[in-house]
Amino acid sequence: MNILFILNDAPYGSEKTYNALRLAMALQKDHPGANIRIFLMADAVTAAIPAQGTPQGYYNIERMMKSLITKGGQVKLCGLCCEARGIKALPLLEGTEIGTMSQLAQWTVESEKVLVF
After folding, report:
1. pLDDT by residue (tens digit) across 55-75?
2. Which CATH superfamily is domain 2-116 in?
């Protein structure tokens, strides 16, 4: 089963990105055959910037994304959203890549479930 997560909120300040990644990780754990895809849009693209420093005991989106990718999850970022935020030329987390609306459209039609956070 293909499951697509579309994330829009910044990685910190709201818990939407955190909760979306928690659900994606639970799906990978409990349903190993699920193909998890994550498309970052708007401020969520900053979730793919490496070297995130968070206080001890606080969740870390970078570690969560790395875990998802290590277990076969795919992560793409909206190129226009990256450009608008000045991060298109910055290094991204290993395993993530800049994507396009055409790729998001393709992922959408290939998915049995689409979850938007």
Report:
1. 888 899 999 999 999 999 999
2. DsrEFH-like (3.40.1260.10)
